[in-house]
Structures are given as C-alpha cells and as structure tokens.
Design a protein that fits this description.
Layout (H helix, E strand, L loop, with lengths): L2 H29 L2 H13 L4 E4 L1 H7 L6 E6 L3 H9 L4 E3 L7 E6 L2 E7 L4 E2 L6 E2 L6 H6 L9 E4 L5 E4 L4 H7 L1 E2 L5 H7 L2 H13 L2 E2 L1 H10 L8 H12 L4 H10 L2 H5 L19 H15 L6 H9 L4 H4 L1 E2 L5 E2 L3 H15 L4 H13 L13 H11 L3 H10 L6 H24 L11 H8 L5 H17 L4 H17 L4
Helix pairs in contact: 8-10, 8-11, 11-13, 13-14, 13-19, 14-17, 14-19, 16-17, 18-20
Length: about 500
Amino acid sequence: MTDSAQSGDARVQARAERRTRLLAAAEVTLASLGDVVTPLASRFADRGHELYLVGGSVRDAVLGRLGNDLDFTTDARPDVILEILRGWAPAVWDTGIDFGTVSAQFGHHMVEITTFRSDIYDQVSRNPVVTFGDTLEGDLVRRDFRANAMAVRIRPDGSQEFCDPLDGMSDLLAGVIDTPAAPEKSFNDDPLRMLRGVRFVSQLGFRLADRVLLATREMAGQIDRITVERIRVELDKMILGEHPLEGVDLLVETGLADRVLPEIPGMKLTIDEHHQHKDVYQHSLTVLKQAVDLETGDPDLVLRWAALLHDIGKPATRRHEDGGGVSFHHHEVVGAKMVRKRLRALKYPKAVVDDVSQLVFLHLRFHGYGDGRWTDSAVRRYVTDAGPLLDRLHKLVRADCTTRNRRRARKLQETYDELEQRIAVLKEAEDLDRVRPDLDGNAIMEILGVPPGRIVGEAWRHLKELRLDSGPMSPDDAETALRAWWAERQAAGLR
C-alpha cells in the first residue's frame, strides 16, 4: 500500500472514530433530558405516533452546544399535538398551528413540535403552500442544510435511534454547510436560506460548500424577496455568533451585504486617515473583534453593531488634503445619521436604533481628551451624553485602537485609563449617573412666579448647564443663579 493510501485510510479511520465519539456524547446529552423527552415520547406513543428530536437541536447535541430550546417533528397532525401538549405542559401556544407547529414550555425548556411537512413554494414570494407529510425522510429532505436534516427518534423507554438519511453527520465532521439538493433549488424555494448559511458560518465556524458559495453569489439578488423583519433576525444571529468576523466577511463576499447592508462593503475602498495597511472595512472588522474580546457576559448586540458600523460615515466625508493626506471630518455625525437610517429600514426597535447611532456619534469624543486636559465639566458632559451607554462607550473606544504602533497604542490605553479614573473620582463626589439641575420645575415656578410652560423648560436647561459646568450647587446658590438668569432675560426684554 502506498503512503498516500495509508494516509487516506488513516483519515477515514480518524473521521469514523470522531463520528462515534460525537454520537456517544450526544446520546449522553439527550439522556440527561430524559425527564422531558421520555414522558413526551410516551404520550405520543400512547396515541400511536412517533416523536423525533430534529434539526438544529440534533446538530447542537452532536456539537456539544445544546441549549434549552428543543425542536421535534412527528407524524401526528397539529390538532393531536395540541391535545397531547395540553395534557403535559403548563403553558402551550398554538400560534403556529396553521404551519403545523405547536409550542410549549416545560420547566426551563421551550419545546416546539411540528408535523412532518412537505412544502411547495410559489417561487415568487417564498411563501410555502403548507402540506403535511407522512415520512421522516420527506420532512428532512425539505430542510435548508444537511447538517440541520438529522433526527433522533425518542422511544417511550428512553432509548434513542439516530436517523441521518442525508448524511448530515459527514457535513458536521467536515465543518461544511451544504444543501440536501441543488442549492439553486433550495434558494429559489426560500432565498433566506442564503443568509442562514452565512449565519451558520458565524455561529458554528463552518464554511460554505463550494457549490453553495457559488449559488449564493449568483442568486444574492433573490434576497430582495424576503421581508426585512426576517432578514433582521438572521443578521442579529450572525453578529451575535462566535465567529462574527467570518460571517460579516462572507456577507460581503457573496454580495448579500450589497442588498441588505450596503454601507458595510461601501467601506471597503476607503483608506483610513492613519495610512495603515488596513482599509476602513478591515479596520472595522478588527474593531468588532476587539469589542467582542472586551465583552464580559453574553454577546452584546448593540456594542457589536456599533463596533462594525462606527466608521460607515467615512466614505461620504472622505477628503484628499494637500500633501497627500486624507481626512474624514465629522464622519461620526454623518455615520450616526446613516446608522439610524439603515437600522430603521431594517425595522430595528427604536431603543436599538437610538443606542447604536448614539455610540457611533460619540465614538470620537474621547480623542478630544488629548493629554488629559479635559476640565471636570468636559468629563461630566462625556458621562452625561453617554448616559446608560457609558460602559459600552468605554469598550467601543478601547476597541477602536487598532494601530500597530505599540507605543501609540499603549499611550491611548493609558490615557483612557486616566479618563475612567477621573470619571470614577467624580462619581464618588457627585451623582454623575443622574445629572439634573439643583432645582426642579416646581421650585423654578415658585421662585420666578411663572406658570408651567416654555420659560420653566428654558430655566431648567440653564440650571442643568450650570450643573454640568460647576458641579452640584446648594439650593441657595442655585436660586441666586436662577434669579440672575431671570434678571438678565428681563433686562434684555425676553419673555
């Protein structure tokens, strides 16, 4: 036997051994859920039906990342599923019953059970004509990717049977995202599957099969058939994945970004003002990576979007200066407006739109700090403008340091350390988290003898500016300042 043949045999054996280990680990994982899945399987068996754990739940069990969401499929029709679950789970939802799905909560687990399906798509809107099937194989073959087309039969005695008619396990072992049939047919049925492929690359660290990558490039325009709400869900799952840089890069490479987030590839040809080897697009990916590294808990949707989009205003503000330099004056202002417009178009919640755009707007503010010469007033305004976003702003500013000059990078981090220390000192001395005037509206009306209205608001804002400039004032000093402001207005003839 030749060396190459021996090497090939060794790879086959190694893959077979890994398959055995993964399946054994998955079996142990699923056995630990016996108090949930076994009684449920018994209830279905009592009605003459089979129950299978399916799709992403099986994939994640094999990969050792199964969460509390459990997806099942069955030959039982939706009305029967509903009857079974209502006698088992304390909370049951039938909002998806028209599509064959009934959901329930049992303890910490969210359970979703769907009748075998065999959908037909209209090839225009991607809306399926829902038809119920009679076989597991027919249900699995209609799924988006082979790695999501595996199932585990749950028996009433707690035993399990692994079902993989499309050999999705081989894709898992190879780290590949591939479709059950030709990707062109799959994407014609539902173009969102192209974006789901990108999302799985981000979540799992896999790669697209060559034919899937080619089909996605050629059919990227078909994503326009999908509602922005569904697109937004996939984009969020992509950005929150364990490998978001790979997901974003693939989104751009396939041309999908041109359709759903054109501002990202729009950064690709913009060289930044520091003349680094990276263009603004690569810089933004680096900032995203460094922001992710600074996360201390669960993935932060707002921080990650702000990190990726913080410089999208640069192409619109790019100016060539005398001497060969490039500037991007006020790109944070333009970028914040662009972020707001794009996120609104994707129908993000108002809170997300506001928070991401505000972080983009503020991300350059620190660079006015210079050598630590900000007054206490400037520090107060920095904290006040950031508000509840201050911790995220800290992370974004630190992540935005991508220079390869170690001395400069260290100096920037030390300067920001100093700013954070000054913020901490001021917070000990005064309530920076809630900077308000030292007199409220009622006190203003009583002192000035005015009714509720515009004057009260203007006086309140004047006192807040004084509070930001000078720090806390005593009630007497605040009243003196208010009366002085009022006297100046009267002298100027203002009402």
